[in-house]
Design goal:
Layout (H helix, E strand, L loop, with lengths): L1 H10 L10 E5 L3 E12 L6 E3 L3 H9 L10 E9 L1 H12 L2 E6 L11 H6 L3 E2 L4 E8 L2 E7 L8 H7 L2 H10 L2 E5 L7 H12 L10 E5 L8 H13 L5 E7 H10 L9 H15 L3 E5 L3 E6 L2 E6 L12 H14 L4 H18 L5 H10 L1
Parallel strand pairs: 1-5, 1-9, 2-7, 5-6, 9-10, 10-11, 11-12
Antiparallel strand pairs: 2-3, 2-4, 7-8, 12-13, 13-14
Length: about 375
């Protein structure tokens, strides 16, 4: 495909590297317990067939209405989780210098985050939440416990890190990513604190990238969502804002902004990205369904197909890897089409291998795709 060849050409330029780029990521943290809902158990351990689709899972639950049901969630693995840690880890594997702020343990770092905290010189604010991620062939359903994240407020950040240290930390960064707004009740106030007290005093960098990811905002009120979308636009004063959305989130935001619904197609996805970007006055809006991705900026709208995987090893974290790939490509100055291609490749590699790729891995993967 043409966009793959163009991406490889851009990646092979001598100047392409993430080694000098500094990226700050926050602000959540979860223990991810990956599970498979059991359809039929034939014996102990992994001797079972799983419920393969979300629709089938829904039917199983619906059949228990007015009665009861016993659903087994077979444990597959337990790992570092949360949008922020997964994205940060992926950026680090791609070569950036990553710092992390988030919920990795209150009194001490949770063992699952020990290596991650060391390599990212992390500042931990609270205990991590817990997610039971039920994975299916056509997606995942995540059951989260988030009480520990309620302590993350701007005054707590100032108390825990300090105003001067926060200013210095922000001043050093080429990109600042704050993700999982939905799960952190006071994150809008944290953003306003950054805008009012930190960024005006931080070192100016008009090319600094701000990346935001909502993380399925359906449970948040219309008022809260409209508020944070306006807040995102304020960050444009201090750099360039990228808003990352999966297809479901894009439909939610599109409807919130009172646009007519569109069926999913290449052209309609580009239209959605364009009108969301223009309405919110952001530098870039990215939409990534499972099978492709689009983005829109001031110059136009762009599209790239993805390497669809019909039998992924893992899906939890795929979107975070997409985000890491797109942001990393943007930091390296790749074109929009190449940035989308690197993003879908980062996600595609991860779901096939259950591991985060290096830039070298991606060059090989794109070349053989």
């Amino acid at each position: 495909m043409e966009h793959q060849q163009q991406t490889l050409k851009e990646l092979n330029r001598p100047s392409i590297s993430l080694a000098s780029k500094k990226a700050l990521v926050g602000i959540d943290g979860f223990i991810d317990k990956i599970v498979h809902p059991v359809a039929q158990r034939n014996g102990p351990g992994d001797d079972f067939s799983r419920i393969e689709t979300i629709a089938d899972f829904g039917k199983r639950i619906s059949s228990a209405a007015g009665k009861s049901a016993n659903l087994e969630l077979a444990p597959i693995t337990e790992k570092l989780g949360g949008n922020g840690p997964i994205m940060a880890n992926a950026q680090r594997c791609l070569g950036a210098q990553v710092r992390y702020i988030g919920a990795l343990g209150k009194d001490s770092i949770h063992p699952l985050f020990s290596e991650f905290a060391t390599t990212t010189k992390a500042v931990s604010l609270a205990d991590p939440g817990v997610t039971h991620a039920a994975e299916f062939k056509d997606g995942k359903i995540m059951f989260g416990s988030t009480g520990s994240l309620e302590t993350i407020t701007f005054p707590f950040l100032l108390e825990h890190i300090g105003l001067e240290d926060l200013m210095d930390l922000f001043s050093q960064q080429d990109s600042i990513s704050m993700v999982n707004w939905t799960m952190i009740p006071y994150l809008s106030e944290v953003f306003e604190g950054f805008l009012d007290q930190i960024l005006p005093a931080a070192k100016t960098n008009p090319d600094r990238l701000f990346f935001f990811d909502l993380a399925d905002p359906e449970k948040r009120s219309r008022k809260d969502l409209l508020r944070v979308l306006k807040i995102f636009g304020r960050f444009e004063e201090f750099g360039k804002v990228i808003l990352g959305l999966n297809h479901r989130e894009a439909e939610q935001i599109d409807a919130l902004l009172d646009f007519e619904p569109l069926t999913k197609s290449r052209q309609n996805l580009q239209t959605q990205a364009t009108r969301i970007r223009e309405t919110l006055k952001l530098n870039t809006v990215v939409i990534h369904p499972v099978e492709c991705a689009v983005c829109a900026n001031a110059e136009g709208a762009y599209y790239a197909e993805g390497p669809l995987c019909n039998d992924p090893k893992i899906t939890t974290g795929a979107g975070d890897h997409f985000n890491a790939g797109f942001l990393s490509a943007s930091l390296m100055g790749l074109s929009p089409e190449a940035s989308l291609t690197l993003a879908v490749a980062t996600s595609g590699f991860y779901v096939r291998n259950a591991d985060s790729p290096s830039l070298k891995d991606l060059i090989s993967f794109i070349g053989s795709w």
